Amino acid sequence: MRRARFEALVRDVLVEPLRRFLRRRTDPETADDVLSDTLLACWRRFDELPDPPLPWAYGVARLCLANAQRSARRQQRLAARVAAVDPPREADDAPADDALHEALGSLDPDDAELLRLWAWEQLTPSEIATVLGVTPNAASIRLHRARGRLRDAIGKVEAGAGHEGVEGGRRG
């Protein structure tokens, strides 16, 4: 009976939002591995899941992804020591001509993650608070400040790209 309830919850509520959440943050293979780890943690704590369970599961997924990324960094350091050739260069994630991606990339990682939870996952400040393990008030304040910093960063990126300012409906 417990297994059937868990499988229904995973199928109907958790798996697709968690898969999208993870694929927006890492490559598909890592996302699938981390999704498995996240669902295992949800199964182990099934009797303790809050209602609604998705924000809590996002928090678990963030922690599992952080663990996977730490593990990957350790493996890369080891491979670099063993390899006789230079390690491959990392690809740039954000296209240089996309002001939003560039601005988001220039933010503090905590601000960027907060904005992704709000914009990509469409979480409320209360749900974001659950994911991040903070109070709803703190999440709301941090979100407000992060949005302001993003707005400023977009302005700097656009100004640096040679965009002219507009004043009173006329080019300035």
Compact summary:
By secondary structure, this protein is an all-alpha fold.
Key structural traits:
single chain; mainly alpha; transcription; Arc Repressor Mutant, subunit A; Rna Polymerase Sigma Factor, Chain: A; 172 residues; two-stranded antiparallel sheet; 70% helix
DSSP helix fraction: 55-70%
Write down how many β-strands occur, each being a DSSP E stretch of 2 or more residues.
2
Largest sheet: 2 strands, antiparallel
* Strand order across the largest sheet: 1-2
So what's the CATH class of the largest domain?
A: Mainly Alpha
Q: How many distinct folded domains?
A: 2
| Quaternary assembly | single chain
- Average pLDDT, to the nearest integer? 82
Instruction: Note the beta-strand portion.
Output: under 5%
- Number of alpha- plus pi-helical segments: 7
Structural class label: mainly alpha
**Straight-line distance between termini:** 68 Å
| Helix and strand pattern | HHHHHHHEE
What is the rounded Rg?
A: 20 Å
Low-confidence stretches: 83-97, 165-172
As for the CATH topology of the largest domain, it is: Rna Polymerase Sigma Factor, Chain: A
Bulk shape: globular
Named at the architecture level, the CATH assignment of the largest domain is Orthogonal Bundle
GO biological process, one term: DNA-templated transcription initiation
Keywords: Sigma factor, Transcription, Transcription regulation
Domain RNA polymerase sigma-70 region: 18-74
Protein name: Sigma-70 family RNA polymerase sigma factor
